Structure formats: C-alpha cells, structure tokens
C-alpha cells in the first residue's frame, strides 16, 4: 500500500476540447496529456473533487474518466487511501518497445521496397521540424514530431491501421519518451532518424534493421539511469 506523498494538482494544463467531444473523453484526454507530459508526476495522489475543481466539470464524468484511466494503467485506485498516478513500470515499457521494434523492422523492410524521392522529401521535412524544435520547452511537441516520423513509415508501407491500433498501446511508452526528452540527450533521436532515413534511401536493409532496433530499445538503459536519479517515480 503506497503512502500519500502529494495531493497538489493545481497546475493542470488545460487542453482544448474538440468540437462534439464527449465530456468524459475530454477529461480522459486532458488527464492523459498531463500524465504523459509528466506535468502530474508519478506517485502523486489526485481526487475527483480536485480534478472537478480544476476542470470546472462535475464529478460524474470525472469518476468515469478515473475508471477508464485505471483500466489503461495510468492511475491506481486504493480504497480508503486515494487515487494515485501510476509509477513508471520499466517492464511494461520494455514489452512495448519490443512490440514496436518487431513491428517496425518489418515496416521498414516494406518501406525500403516502396521508397521514392517524394517520400524522402516528406520525411526530411519532419526531421527538419524536430531539429527546429529541439530546444523547445514543450517536450510534447517533440514527442508528436517523433511519433509522426514513425506514423509516416506505416503510411508508406500501407499499414496505417496497424499504427492506429498501436497508438493505444504506446501511451506508457510515450510518458517514458517525454521523461527522456526532459532529462536526456535530445539529439540522439534526431541523429537516429537521419541515419534511418539515409539507410532506407540507400536500400541498406541490414543497416536499417540495426538502427531501428537500437532506436526503439535503447529506452531501457535510459530508464535505468533515470530510475537511479528519480527512484520515487518508478515501480520497485
């Protein structure tokens, strides 16, 4: 049973509600954004009332949002204690990175077979965008650009439905990526994206496989480093 460490969430970042978006969907998306961006830290306790006050929304949709966030593993509800933002689970991240690595190695093979100069130019623009934003104070922006890079590979391989399915499974991985962006070397992603694009253009399958495998699994060692620095954020 965890001890209550912190109950302050008076700094929730409010995101824009989409037109016709259900209130519960909005609450889930808003809280996920704050959890993934590490704006609400792992191990912090929150309450329906506190979230209701921050979002100016009644407690009924907050309660449903908590239920959905518990199912997705972002919060843990402890009766008589409270509701806690889940700690980072390195084993879960490892499984996600393994799944991505297996899938994307096959995606890259297909991309190499179908690659054109037009695709090169589009991906190059994405890499340039990452470079321009690399010193930004908005790590989520870099995460979005990073994810867009990989989404483009799935589109080229004509497997966008696979990517859309995958998005629901990489949310915890995204939180690890944002933590990495905040605390580690941002240039590594930029360098690896450039190297992968060049190896794809040169139709170098072996090199592409090595790059994508390293690119999607080096998060493990990063998290071990961060766990030593921020032990309270991680599952024991």
Structure at a glance:
With 236 residues, the chain is mostly helical. The chain has 11 helices and 3 strands.
Structural commentary:
- The mean pLDDT is 93.
- 65% of the residues lie in helices and 4% in strands.
- The protein has a 3-stranded antiparallel β-sheet.
- The protein is mostly helical.
- α4 (90-114) packs across α6 (139-156) and α9 packs antiparallel against α10 (205-217).
- The longest helix has 25 residues, at 90-114.
Observed structural traits:
236 residues, mainly alpha, three-stranded antiparallel beta sheet, 3 strands, globular
Helix content: 55-70%
Number of strands: 3
The proportion of residues in beta strands is under 5%
Instruction: Give the low-confidence spans.
Output: none
Major sheet size, sense and barrel closure: 3 strands, antiparallel
Provide the succession of SSEs.
HEHHEEHHHHHHHH
Treating each run of at least 4 consecutive H or I residues as one helix, how many helices?
11
Q: Taking all residues together, what is the mean pLDDT?
A: 93
**Structural class of the helices, strands and pairings?**
mainly alpha
Please state the overall shape, judged from the principal axes of the Cα atoms: globular
Question: Radius of gyration in whole Å, from Cα?
Answer: 19 Å
Q: Give me the side-by-side strand order of the main sheet.
A: 1-3-2
Q: State the distance separating the first and last CA atoms.
A: 13 Å
